[in-house]
Design goal:
Low-confidence stretches: 258-265, 267-272, 439-461, 537-545, 735-746, 785-814, 934-958
Oligomer: single chain
InterPro entries: ARM-like, ARM-type_fold, TELO2-interacting_protein_1, TPR_TTI1_C, TPR_TTI1_N, TTI1_rpt
Distance between the termini: 127 Å
Radius of gyration: 51 Å
Protein name: TOG domain-containing protein
Pfam family, one: TPR_TTI1_N
């Protein structure tokens, strides 16, 4: 049900509320003429009246409005006697009455009087009042009254006619001028907003075309002062948007086309027959005067508020749609501004602006020509902008051109000629950006191949398939390159973009340096966007046109071919390869794989090795891009993982590595490809590496004098050994004769008991009895001459000995052959020994580490392991006298591992090595004592028992000194002990403990070992337990001699005797 106004009952209630206030106010105002006038009481009454009026707004009507206005009009007549606050409240109350009570029923003369009064009160220095200067609040209330008056007058034909009459022109001009001055000069934001709203109401509701044209110069001049950005006065966004709307309405009504003005009802009836001030000369003058003003206003395009930018875009669209004929000189800057405002924005207003421009472009051919001419100008100025230092200006210019090109493309206009200019302009922009000076990083020019070729990249994300921008070197370039990339994608989505791609492809092969990088990147970006977008659309629609796709498919083949050339080319010694080109080449390979899908498997023979080669470079960015490329290969070719990708194509990779090594390609990336390959694929790739290992040793033989190269190659072999040691095939080796070593009972020394002593005496007595004659066995074969007793006889004898021992000779009982991985590890370990005397300490340490890694898996096949010990032993033992402590410690570690896995087989070697171990002990002990500042260890003497076993101690004094030095080393962290010294000592202790555990020693050697390990028995319970397992009595005796035991420990009575009640006698 429509609202029919307030009911009679509501009006009566409102009247009852208003009556006492209005009567009281009238009486107070009349009393103001006499001596008893109370100004304060009047102010309170007006305040109360305003409150009631605001509360009763829904029930107000024109009659109630007249009733409320009566006391207020009496008060206004005495305005010279009341304060400013009273006038402010009065005007605020009148503004409510105009808006909600009078409305379209306002009287014309009353409206004119109120306009005059409010104009006077809004002036800075009003005339005819007691106060000399007005207040911001009073001006705000006056502007609010003016706004409501003009809105209400628009619904009254009489009011509109009066305000548009020539007689009212001076007053209207005064009101406009006062309002504009109030906006400019006022410091209060609410006053500026109220003034802008009143001016907008006047222009939209009262002023016609002739009035606007008459006051246009003055209005535009002051509006320009308001709208021009300034650092001294920052206008509120509400003021700016309102003034922009006012300016837009003025221009549309004055310099717009006649048809549009008539359709908008801007021509008044009373002036339609008179001559208009708008003629050709006026338009020319207006165009000349408006251009500089609009240039200043359009600087608001940099404003941060979105609503201001939207209002400015509306002004620019008005200039293009309605004022393009009169203000032709402003069309280009309006077009540039509107694209600047809409570019890079996703707001609804931006989309609306684009739609309006597209409609204008299709409907108006001159506008299309203007747009193309503007784009050409922008492209010519683009390199100049890109050479500047203002990054925001670069981004803005690129977005402008991109938005304009997108509009032309969406309108279906021909762009082939424009595409060629775009290719050149974008290429120049990329080159300029690449050549711009960037932040220099000192110490980054030289990167050591050995130190930087780590495998940390393999521990990162292994599922990433997204590349970062290959050209961005610092943060300032990121947004610029992002805009250029987006522009290239916009161009590639055009149906006629083949000219753009063709121009880039033609110059790609014959360019170099930054120009080639720019061509490659732009063509790759356009090709990727075009092919992937077309594939997405083709999956839904069959458009029946493959011309564009065919052009970009050819571009992709060109990029793929060039990418392989870049990645396979050898870099000169004097110049490093361009990492940006390598990175782009990897992206080209990845794109080729994504487009080809599973069919790309046939291309892996050419493309997989270059990617791994790049993965081995020192550059972290290239390593990351290479891993991303491998992940894309894996996904495109439908492999489950990168490991499967490499294992399935391991023959391609091993052949490529072998060819590089056989051609003596000594770049560090070549061997490191194998490192990456083995790390990624694991032990499953080891069986295929035999030829590559042979090639590595061939290179080592010919280039062993180059220490850095040798280290890199042996690092490869070490990685192969580490992965091979984890191979499941080696864990499955079960030689039934592990046999020959473990089957031999470990001969431990133990005390002789009574039974064994009696048996020994009987055997000795039997040997002393006369020997009985023994008959020689009959010969089993014919006698032969001494000259025939040779190899064959010995061979037969050995066979007979094997038969006599009951050993089987059938081939079926021989152990199964070792797997291929085992053979490769054995070969690497055997050949490594020849490089142990190398001059580089780090290389010697690396080689010993390699041997340490390969010994445990090799030990599982004793037929090969035991001969390997014979081969390696001399070189390993010689390292005990090495000048580098790290090498000595590694040699001791390997001796420990050999004893652990060979057991009794090492007994003779350990006996022969014992003097050397004793010398290591003495040397280390002397260094520890000397370093601790406690003195020196004297040279130990030989034992007097006649054995060739060297004593390792020289009395209790020296022993206690060494013990104190060890306690200092372990218990006092603040006391400095050489790290290398500690390393050798710990390795020696571990090696000696392992020897005791796994190798049978004579009592004499055990005693020596016990003496050497005595200082650590208290701090290392594991070592003490190992020694007690061998000979607990000897350990007890040593501890007793050294005073480590406070009292004699009574041995436990055997359980068999204790059960019979036998106990140890107690000695008093």
């Amino acid at each position: 049900m429509p609202f029919l106004g307030p009911t009679m009952e509501a009006r009566n209630q409102t009247f009852q509320h208003l009556k006492p206030i209005c009567v009281s106010l009238s009486q107070d105002v009349l009393a103001l003429n006499g001596p008893r006038g109370d100004v304060a009481k009047i102010t309170r009454s007006v305040q109360e009246l305003k409150t009631v009026v605001a509360k009763e707004v829904p029930n107000l009507d024109p009659k109630l409005g007249d009733y409320i206005f009566f006391p207020l009009s009496q008060l206004l007549k005495l305005s010279q006697k009341v304060p400013l606050r009273c006038l402010e409240l009065c005007l605020e109350c009148i503004a409510i009455v105009i808006e909600h009570a009078w409305g379209q029923h306002i009287q014309t003369q009353l409206a004119a009087q109120i306009v005059i009064l409010c104009t006077l009160m809004a002036e800075k220095n009003p005339r005819g009042f007691a106060f000399g200067e007005t207040s911001e609040e009073l001006k705000t209330a006056a502007f609010l009254c003016l706004k409501n008056i003009f809105i209400a007058a628009s619904a009254s034909a009489d009011c509109v006619t009066f305000f548009r009459s020539e007689s009212n022109f001076p007053q209207l001009g005064q009101t406009i001028s006062t309002t504009l001055d109030g906006i400019i000069d006022s410091e209060a934001v609410q006053t500026q907003v109220a003034g802008a709203d009143s001016l907008k109401a006047l222009v939209e509701n009262v002023a016609d075309r002739e009035i606007c044209a008459s006051f246009l110069p003055g209005i535009v001049s002051k509006l320009t002062k308001i709208l021009t950005p300034s650092t001294t006065m920052r206008r509120s966004h509400k003021v700016l948007t309102t003034c922009l709307d006012v300016l837009e309405g003025l221009l549309k009504s004055t310099v717009g086309t006649e048809e549009q003005v008539v359709s908008n009802g801007m021509t008044s009836d009373n002036q339609s027959g008179k001559s208009s001030v708008i003629d050709t000369k006026w338009r020319e003058n207006a165009a000349t005067q408006l251009k500089p003003a609009l240039q200043s206003v359009l600087r608001l395009s940099e404003h941060s508020r979105e609503d201001v930018r939207e209002s400015l875009a509306g002004l620019c669209l008005t200039l293009l749609e309605h004022c393009r004929t009169t203000l032709a000189n402003c069309s280009q800057m309006a077009l540039e501004t509107v694209f600047q405002l809409s570019a890079g924005s996703d707001s609804d207003n931006s989309h609306t602006t684009t739609i309006r421009l597209e409609m204008l472009l299709k409907a108006d051919t001159p506008f299309a020509n203007l747009l193309q001419s503007t784009i050409n100008d922008w492209l010519q100025s683009l390199p100049t902008v890109m050479q500047g230092s203002n990054e925001h200006a670069k981004v803005r210019k690129i977005q402008q051109v991109s938005a304009a090109y997108g509009l032309i493309r969406d309108a279906g206009l021909e762009t082939s000629m424009l595409d060629k200019r775009l290719a050149s302009a974008l290429r120049d922009s990329v080159v300029i950006t690449l050549q711009a000076p960037s932040v220099k990083t000192e110490g980054k020019d030289f990167v050591s191949s050995v130190q930087s070729l780590d495998l940390s990249v393999l521990d990162g994300e292994k599922t990433g398939t997204e590349f970062s921008n290959a050209l961005v070197e610092h943060r300032g370039q990121e947004e610029v390159f992002s805009c250029i990339e987006g522009f290239a994608k916009v161009v590639s989505s055009s149906g006629s973009s083949a000219a753009f791609a063709g121009d880039l492809a033609r110059s790609l092969r014959y360019s170099n340096a930054e120009i080639q990088v720019a061509n490659f990147w732009l063509l790759l970006t356009a090709t990727q966007n075009a092919l992937q977008c077309q594939d997405d659309i083709s999956s839904l629609l069959d458009l029946g046109s493959d011309e564009g796709k065919a052009a970009y498919t050819d571009c992709l083949e060109e990029l793929y071919s060039l990418a392989l050339t870049i990645l396979n080319s050898l870099s000169d010694e004097d110049s490093l390869p361009d990492e940006r080109l390598q990175s782009l080449a990897l992206r080209a390979l990845a794109l080729r794989a994504q487009i080809a899908g599973s069919d790309f498997r046939y291309e892996l023979i050419d493309s997989l090795y270059p990617v791994l080669h790049t993965l081995a470079t020192p550059s972290t960015e290239l390593q990351r891009d290479s891993m991303t490329t491998l992940n894309i290969f894996t996904t495109a070719c439908r492999y489950d993982s990168v490991r499967d990708l490499i294992v399935e194509n391991v023959d391609y990779l091993t052949n490529a590595v072998s060819l590089k090594l056989n051609a003596f390609d000594l770049s560090p990336q070549v061997p490191m490809v194998m490192v990456m390959m083995v790390r990624l694929a694991g032990s499953s790739v080891i069986p295929y590496m035999e030829d590559v290992v042979e090639s590595i040793f061939a290179v080592l033989e010919g280039w062993h004098g180059y220490s850095m190269l040798v280290e890199v190659l042996f690092r490869v072999l070490r990685v192969v050994a580490e992965e091979g040691a984890r191979a499941p095939q080696l864990a499955a080796i079960e030689n039934g004769e592990k046999s020959k070593v473990e089957a031999v009972i470990k001969e431990k020394w133990r005390p002789t008991n009574v039974t064994e002593l009696a048996s020994s005496l009987r055997e000795k007595r039997a040997e002393e009895s006369p020997e009985r004659e023994r008959r020689e066995k009959a010969p089993q074969r014919p006698w032969k001459g001494s000259e025939e007793v040779g190899g064959e006889a010995k061979e037969n004898d050995s066979e007979d000995e094997l038969d006599a021992a009951g050993r089987p000779t059938d081939d079926a009982d021989l152990p199964p052959p070792a797997p291929k991985t085992y053979g490769l590890l054995l070969k690497i370990t055997e050949l490594t020994q020849h490089f142990l005397p190398a001059a580089s300490p780090s290389l010697r340490t690396s080689l010993l580490s390699l041997i340490r890694t390969s010994v445990p898996p090799i030990s599982k096949h004793e037929n090969s392991f035991l001969p390997l010990i014979n081969t390696l032993w001399p070189e390993i033992v010689s390292r005990l006298d090495d000048s580098e402590p790290q090498v000595q410690a590694s040699a001791l570690d390997i001796i420990s591992v050999l004893c652990e896995h060979a057991g009794d087989f090492m007994r003779t070697r350990i006996i022969e090595l014992w003097p050397g171990l004793a010398e290591v002990y003495r040397r280390t002990a002397r260094d520890i004592v000397s370093n601790s500042g406690s003195g020196k260890v004297d040279d130990p003497k030989k034992r007097s028992s006649g054995r060739e076993i060297i004593s390792v101690t020289a009395g209790r004094s020296c022993t206690s000194t060494f013990d104190r030095a060890l306690r200092t080393m372990y218990d006092s962290p603040t006391h400095y002990i050489d790290t290398s010294m500690r390393l050798v000592w710990n390795a020696f202790v571990e090696a000696l403990t392992t020897v005791i555990k796994h190798v049978p020693l004579s009592p004499e050697l055990f005693d020596d070992a016990l003496e050497m390990l005595a200082p650590v028995l208290d701090s290392r319970p594991d070592i003490r337990k190992a020694l007690e397992d061998e000979n607990a009595d000897a350990v007890w005796l040593l501890l007793t001699k050294r005073g480590r035991l406070t009292s004699l420990e009574c041995p436990e009575m055997p359980e068999a005797l204790s059960s019979k009640g036998i106990v140890w006698p107690i000695v008093a």
